[in-house]
């Protein structure tokens, strides 16, 4: 049996089976990236629900694994150096899992580079811009009278979607074969429903992006992974 007692987070979220990968998450666009990847890769794992409340993400236990107080985070008891390893940042976790399993990261160095390129497109652009747009459209930012912040993020979201629309004109998946890049990108496209922003970004004028998201959501591993961890506890 693996000993994960070195990780303080296990004092608050105690593993039932410490021999398998431990996922600390919540089903947000960033959170489900990892649960979907784990399902797609067929890795054994144990999910732990970490709510977005300060009591969880700012607790000493969670901060001991992720000092940036954001989900998701993982502990892999079977790390690459023969010892457990803890990781945070969804993009870093996706790359780690893909390299660990040899899945969804291409078959050649060139393919891998293209996949990581589009993963970074999501990490540096799509996610941050959509998240800020959501703040100014649906959450507290919607009360701000100055229209410029909202217009800025809506405009940038539309620009990024146009990049995807053009790129997906002649292929099913963003980097060729289905990969961790798609697992990073598509959950943020699905989030436009939650943010009530589809009309704002001209969703109906993006047939390639629409079809791409439908393909993604039809995958059984995606359907399962989007519900993990169960927010009802």
Automatic annotation (TrEMBL):
Highest taxon in the source lineage: Bacteria
Gene3D superfamilies on file: 1.20.1050.10, Glutaredoxin
InterPro entries: Glutathione-S-Trfase_C-like, Glutathione-S-Trfase_C_sf, Glutathione_S-Trfase, Glutathione_S-Trfase_N, Thioredoxin-like_sf
Boundaries of every GST N-terminal domain copy: 18-105
Boundaries of every GST C-terminal domain copy: 108-233
Pfam families: GST_C_2, GST_N
PANTHER family registered for this protein in UniProt: DISULFIDE-BOND OXIDOREDUCTASE YFCG, GLUTATHIONE S-TRANSFERASE-RELATED
Name of the molecule in the record: Glutathione S-transferase C-terminal domain-containing protein
Organism of this sequence: Cognatishimia coralii
High-level lineage: Bacteria, Pseudomonadati, Pseudomonadota, Alphaproteobacteria, Rhodobacterales
């Amino acid at each position: 049996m693996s000993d994960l007692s070195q990780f303080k987070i296990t004092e608050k979220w105690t593993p039932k089976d410490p021999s398998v990968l431990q996922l600390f998450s919540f089903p947000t666009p960033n959170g489900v990236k990892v649960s979907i990847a784990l399902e797609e890769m067929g890795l054994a794992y144990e999910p732990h629900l970490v709510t977005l409340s300060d009591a969880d993400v700012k607790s000493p236990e969670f901060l001991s694994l992720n000092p940036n107080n954001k989900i998701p985070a993982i502990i892999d008891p079977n790390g690459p150096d023969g010892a457990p390893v803890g990781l945070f940042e969804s993009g870093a976790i996706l790359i780690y899992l893909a390299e660990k399993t040899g899945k969804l990261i291409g078959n050649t160095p060139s393919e891998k580079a293209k996949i990581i390129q589009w993963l970074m497109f999501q990490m540096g652009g799509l996610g941050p811009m959509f998240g800020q747009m959501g703040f100014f459209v649906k959450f507290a930012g919607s009360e701000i009278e100055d229209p410029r912040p909202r217009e800025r993020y809506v405009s940038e979201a539309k620009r990024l979607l146009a990049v995807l629309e053009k790129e997906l004109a002649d292929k099913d998946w963003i980097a060729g074969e289905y990969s961790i890049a798609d697992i990073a990108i598509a959950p943020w496209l699905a989030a436009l429903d939650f943010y009530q922003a589809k009309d704002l970004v001209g969703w109906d004028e993006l047939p390639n992006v629409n079809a791409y998201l439908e393909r993604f959501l039809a995958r059984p591993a995606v359907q399962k992974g989007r519900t993990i961890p169960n927010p009802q506890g």
